[in-house]
Amino acid sequence: MQIREVEQSAGLPAKTIRYYEEIGLVRPDRRDNGYRDYSTEDVHRLRFLQRARGLGFSIEDCRALLSLYGETERESADVRAIAEAHLEEIDRKIRELKSMRQTLAHLVQACHGDARPDCPILDDLAGIGGGT
Q: 74: which of 50, 66, 100, 124 is 20 to 30 A away, CA to CA?
């Protein structure tokens, strides 16, 4: 399969497909003319990567998950450990975002939003004034 077909089948742009090849996540064969020749298995791996990346897994996590997926002797505990670690990271980011939201909401509430030049939002960003 040529890259145009793979783009449509996997739902990924050619640039991403080439990047995944460059970092060794997919390894298409090469034809005599040098063109890449993607297999059905390559397309399956690319779809796997698209889904995993869509869930926010890092490239290294994707590499580990692909390795485990291809291993018939794998233990689901290994897969679960990767997923749990990622879930903890998502929870950490959610807490961080909530804190950022709370701070910004407080600053917006403190700003009069009128014609006066004083602005607690800018003061806080500059590290002056009462802040939060």
A: 50
- 120 close to 130: Cβ distance less than 8 angstroms: yes
Q: What is the mean pLDDT of the chain?
A: 93
Looking at CATH, the fold of the domain delimited by 1-58 is given as Multidrug-efflux Transporter Regulator; Chain: A; Domain 2 (1.10.1660)
Nearest to 38 by CA among 64, 9, 1: 1
Read off the pLDDT of residues 112-132 as tens digits, 9 standing for 90 and up: 888 888 899 999 999 886 545
Q: Give the predicted TM-score (pTM) of the model.
A: 0.80
The phi-psi region of residue 11 (left if phi > 0; otherwise alpha if psi is between -120 and 50; otherwise beta) is left
Q: How confident is the model at residue 24 (pLDDT cuts 50, 70, 90)?
A: very high
CA distance 119 to 75: 57
The number of beta carbons lying within 10 Å of the beta carbon of residue 79 is: 14
